[in-house]
């Protein structure tokens, strides 16, 4: 028997822990995908589909060597969302994406976690560019991208999600030379 295992690093910010997806995330993910908050990431899902989605999140790490982390709020030790690097079939290029669970929006967590994920992409994986795909009506995510210094860079037509805005994040050299992240 051959076993496949991928090390998923744990990242830490001032207020958050970004850890590997685990079975303990199933119920919080079920609540997220049963809520209106899921409207920009494919919509509501039943428990069976959420189970498959959790397996997909963990499997992306094995297939690609990177993926999305579960966000844990340090002060409460509660899962509060997911953030990370994503490049499934059909995507134009690698993406940083974020989802916050109910009750955790408006605290700056998405920006804080997405900046950590972007630093991982640039500093550890050696990426030189990354995008975020955002529904035009998702004003909260557009604000996160803007706070990160990303700029709108066209539109991508996706079979399932329709037309989404492409937000391009600053290259590592631009950040090092005093880009907006230097002041975040």
Structure description:
Helices cover 30% and strands 25% of the residues. The protein has 184 residues and is of the alpha+beta class. The chain has one domain (11-183): 3-Layer(aba) Sandwich (Aminopeptidase). It has a 5-stranded antiparallel sheet, sandwiched between helices. A hairpin with a 3-residue loop joins strand 7 (151-158) and strand 8 (162-168). It is globular, with a radius of gyration of 16 Å. Residues 179-184 have low confidence and may be disordered. InterPro entries: Acyl_CoA_acyltransferase (IPR016181), GNAT_dom (IPR000182), N-acetyltransferase (IPR051531).
Helix content: 25-40%
The neighbouring-strand order within the major sheet is 1-2-3-4-5
**Shape call:** globular
In DSSP terms (H or I, runs of 4 or more residues), the helix count works out at 5
CATH class: Alpha Beta
CATH architecture: 3-Layer(aba) Sandwich
pLDDT averaged over residues: 88
CATH topology grouping: Aminopeptidase
* Main structural class: alpha+beta
The CATH superfamily turns out to be Gcn5-related N-acetyltransferase (GNAT)
- Terminus-to-terminus distance: 48 Å
Protein name: N-acetyltransferase domain-containing protein
GO molecular function, one term: acyltransferase activity, transferring groups other than amino-acyl groups
Domain N-acetyltransferase: 16-171
Organism: Thalassovita mediterranea
């Amino acid at each position: 028997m051959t076993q496949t295992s991928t090390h998923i690093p744990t990242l830490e910010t001032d207020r958050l822990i970004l850890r590997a997806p685990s079975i303990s995330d199933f119920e919080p993910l079920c609540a997220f995908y049963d809520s209106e908050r899921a409207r920009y990431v494919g919509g509501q899902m039943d428990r069976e589909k959420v189970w498959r989605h959790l397996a997909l999140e963990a499997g992306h790490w094995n297939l690609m060597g990177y993926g999305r982390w579960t966000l844990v709020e340090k002060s409460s030790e509660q899962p509060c969302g997911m953030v990370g690097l994503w490049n499934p079939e059909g995507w134009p290029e690698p993406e940083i994406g974020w989802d916050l669970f109910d009750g955790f929006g408006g605290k700056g967590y998405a920006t804080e976690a997405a900046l950590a994920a972007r630093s991982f992409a640039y500093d550890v994986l050696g990426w030189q560019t990354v995008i975020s795909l955002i529904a035009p009506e998702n004003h909260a995510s557009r604000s996160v991208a803007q706070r990160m210094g990303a700029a709108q860079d066209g539109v991508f037509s996706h079979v399932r999600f329709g037309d989404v805005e492409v937000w391009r994040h600053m290259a590592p050299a631009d950040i090092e030379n005093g880009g907006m992240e230097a002041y975040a």
